[in-house]
């Protein structure tokens, strides 16, 4: 029989969520069932739509179970048992982060749920959904992925229980874990399961697929494999300071992109294959050229708030060279930049205009950062030992032509049906200062009154721990922004993001920040208290009380300390700062 992935499938109007939709498509069975903690939204910013349409484009029939009732196994059985596997993800954010605030209080809203109400997904959704699928389909291979699984792939600190937890692959009892962006790993998994020996254990069949981790033995690794041996789970539990060692080693392994990682746990070994390569421009174009309808599936009778925020924005690239120590998204996507072509981006603008009755205002263009489209490393990434391409100083090997970005924005603005184009957030101001012509064109033509920037703090020590540029760089950009806005006759403002209770930040550092804000007569609107998310270097600092060099630092760990710091940043009316 001809393998299915060699056949051509037409893209469905929506990835099916019911047997009736499968019947309309002429599909007798699914090959892959995707289970998600997010609503079913057919938009390239929603992972299940992106992965599902990618697999369909490669010949696999895919259905989606969005936010199933985890108390009822029949909530995932409506389309029958899939032929190959179930792919399980918690959603766009870690499910604990979706449910709990930085002060470990319950959230009342969820941007990825119809109606914006919390409670549609369980805590630790990846683990719960895998159990649900296993009850519904005994013996079916189950693969976990998404940001929750990706950043919990080895021993990690869990803020919400204040404990070190082992790899989520073990706790979920899944067959394999995909880390990083999932298109290439999931396609490799589907092909291996379609072609391989069904009697061979799933973990053995998937061992070595790029971007995939399985459980096994060290002896299972290829003889020629270069392996980063992480401290075992038991060693980290016994000596929590070794969490930093493991976190930094895994960060380097993922960035350099050619070695395996392995961690002993409970008499077995977690075997982490080298990461999948970033998608090429042609692949990324093909992905975004797929016929996304950019609306929620009709099964939802209420709007999904997370869709509104991206409805008229365009994703131009993936990856971020910043390497901020607290950023989960950039850690998940990696530091290598993968960019779409101008042709693909312009075609999306035309499609947005068509979908909006012939006229659209594009609200944002970018990726994790706004001004890294087309960026690349001119050096050898496989031997790069830097933690960031941009700090403490911009690496000379990191190259990006920001005037090409201005040219792209100009062409977008001239596209028939496009009213205007804005860049609303994500600008790396240190990069922008490298090309004054970019900064001038951006501020004059593509800022719609407000530009959101993320200096995060002002204290030199805290900024260094964050891997953010120094205050002098931010102040220089502010002067440039204000001068250009004034010369252009435009009333425009920078809206800065600041963070309290970051590791290494004590009351003295918070007073530095509040005094600086007072000098500028700023009352910040965008503030957050540091929330330790699994897998990041900042979270390792929070858990160990040490910086990456092993030096002790102050950590505001208990709720009272964290609330006090945050209170300095967000004083009540009539109360003086600091």
TrEMBL record:
GO terms for molecular function: 4 iron, 4 sulfur cluster binding; catalytic activity; iron ion binding. Binds 1 [4Fe-4S] cluster. The cluster is coordinated with 3 cysteines and an exchangeable S-adenosyl-L-methionine. Residues 306-578 form the Radical SAM core domain. Transmembrane segments: none annotated. Residues 557-578 are annotated as: Disordered. Keywords: 4Fe-4S, Iron, Iron-sulfur, Metal-binding, S-adenosyl-L-methionine. It comes from the Bacteria. Coiled coil: none annotated. Pfam families: Radical_SAM_N. Its cofactor is [4Fe-4S] cluster. [4Fe-4S] cluster binds at residues 320, 324, 327. Belongs to the UPF0313 family. NCBIfam families: SAM_YgiQ. PANTHER family: UPF0313 PROTEIN YGIQ. This is Radical SAM domain protein. It comes from Desulfarculus baarsii (strain ATCC 33931 / DSM 2075 / LMG 7858 / VKM B-1802 / 2st14).
